[in-house]
Design a protein that fits this description.
The chain has a domain of 80 residues. The mean pLDDT is 91. The protein is an alpha+beta fold and 146 residues long. It is globular.
Length: 146
């Protein structure tokens, strides 16, 4: 429905206070959500990092700040190494990497470390967002088209 609560709770999860009111009203710089909501007429969808098998953002990173974890498969950014050149933003085929202008680095989905379920998924009122393993996704696709 495009309510945007995924953005609110993502930004809150990545804030200093972790409090929804304080994060959005008092913190400077404001926390940046790692999820974007696209909407046109009645159609809305959430867009965040897909943690690609072939991560072009990692391949294009000039400093090696973008890395794919070989164990978890998550694509992460080392904020200490990021120089804010935005090359990864240009390389991402999904448009899933944002600029954190306050810190002059990139912000992308990190799957909310320390949480069992990412904040965007946990706080989606319609359960439109979910975490799906790649193998499970392939199974459901093949069953849907059989």
């Amino acid at each position: 429905m495009g309510c945007g609560l995924c953005k609110v709770y993502c930004a809150t999860e990545h804030s200093v206070s972790k409090d929804v009111i304080k994060a959005h009203k008092r913190e400077t710089p404001k926390p940046v959500p790692r999820v974007r909501v696209e909407q046109k007429a009645e159609v809305a969808f959430s867009l965040q990092c897909r943690h690609c098998t072939e991560p072009w953002c990692v391949y294009s990173c000039l400093t090696g700040a973008m890395q794919k974890d070989p164990i978890t498969g998550l694509v992460n950014v080392d904020q200490e190494r990021c120089m804010g050149c935005w090359t990864c933003i240009l390389a991402c085929p999904h448009g899933a990497i944002a600029r954190d202008q306050g810190k002059k680095i990139v912000a992308k989905c990190d799957f909310c470390p320390g949480r069992d379920i990412p904040a965007c998924v946990a706080n989606c009122p319609n359960e439109a967002l979910m975490v799906v393993e790649e193998n499970d996704l392939e199974k459901s696709r093949s069953q849907a088209f059989s």
